[in-house]
Amino acid sequence: MSRVGKKPVIIPKEVKVKVDGASVNVKGPKGELTQTFNPDLKIAVENGSVVVTPPADPAYDAVHGMTRALIQNMMVGVTEGYKRGLEIDGVGYRAEVQDKKLVMALGLSHMVTIDPPAGITFSVDKTQRILSVEGADKQIVGELAAKIRSMRPPEPYKGKGIHYAGERIRRKAGKAGKAGAK
What we know:
Structural class: alpha+beta
Order of helices and strands: HEEEEEEHEEEEEEHE
CATH topology of the largest domain: Outer Surface Protein A, domain 3
Number of strands: 13
Strand order of the largest sheet: 11-12-7-13
Strand content: 35-45%
Number of helices: 3
CATH superfamily of the largest domain: Ribosomal protein L6
Number of domains: 2
Low-confidence stretches: none
């Protein structure tokens, strides 16, 4: 059995959990999430917690732990939510929120506009250089942050581009010049 999968997922007071076969619905103050899991696993609500029980086959150990972790992520998402920070570096690079859409100037001939999926919000600080993606679904928040970063990934010579908050960018020295030339 998986060590992670053995632990029960504690249900916070403000969260409602509904298990319907292989489908789990979690509703809380930050939103509502539904996910379907492997039908061979037994998911049940017992004594204020969610318990995942696998079949006796050892092939289900990895699926057991992953299912429990995904249910835990759903609990955290509907109570606290997830937030991914991004930083923009470069002359003329900036971002702003217009009508819930993220509009970015990234040195292209046009402005880049991103519509948020349901349950996702963008926020940009007053310097227009630090933005964040927030929502209840950890997977969607991470995917959207990665999509935004891929629009202009940081380049290694000057460090211009979009990078995650706290991400260390490996810098290259650049051209050595004409050292030793006559």
